[in-house]
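Chain A, query sequence.
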Amino acid sequence: MKSGIAKRLHHKTSLHAIQVELQSGYDLSPVEAQVLARRVQQLVDEQAGFARQPGQITYQAIAIDEPPGKPLEDCRKVAVHLTVMADEDSGVWTDEGSLALRRLRVHRLVYEATLQGGALSQEDVACILGVSRKSVKRIFAYFREQGEWLPSRGQIQDMGRGVSHKIPIIRRYVEDLSFSQISRELGNHGIASMARYLNHFALVMILEDRGLTVQQMESVMGISENLIGQYRDLYAALNKPEHQRTLERLKRTVLQPSSRADTPNRAPSALDEGEKGGLR
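Chain A, predicted structure.
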């Protein structure tokens, strides 16, 4: 069993990804591709190391849009920067204990990967943190009991790429990060796309407050019932006193659009650079 796990994890390494690309794209033999892949990996590591922050690693995650059932060795991989050790970790460990720290790290890893276009499996998380898969499985179950489904590769495949990528962005915007911070983390994802996710979420909140059904919302908005359902569940989870100012600001971007929003693909004023539902 362990040999099978090791083989699956090997298929997710950057070295293997380069080897597969060389074999399929340049008609090299497995041995030739392996030798050249090692040299390419050395060069990549030398050039890419500067992008990481202290406490981060670079990990080859399965691309978030890869379909279920596809062999891992054939899946496209993306390099994601993951924070294994952050400044807040020592405080959580001393104040709340090792279990709270493991939960924090699991939560952080899966969301960091998702926001960079990758999807981590529970096996990936266990390997990165050096804990058992049972421990990681229990942590995922803990968050489900709290009403939050962490975006692991299995969960993302169940939900579909569109929902899985939108939900973490909106949640992190409301709970934690400014629009500009999320934009920097996402790299080339696009500010216009992020603004569209948040506007759709804001409209679902407004229609939910007014008592419309999912079917009526679909008719008004033109997005799928599945996505609307995910937005409604997210609204229920975030509709707490500590988030009210941010949620109300998002609603106002729909009800009272800025006069400057007539520029094509421009985010509404409440989502302007540096703002996060109020002063930070």
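The longest helix spans residues 30-48. DSSP finds 14 helices and three strands in the chain.
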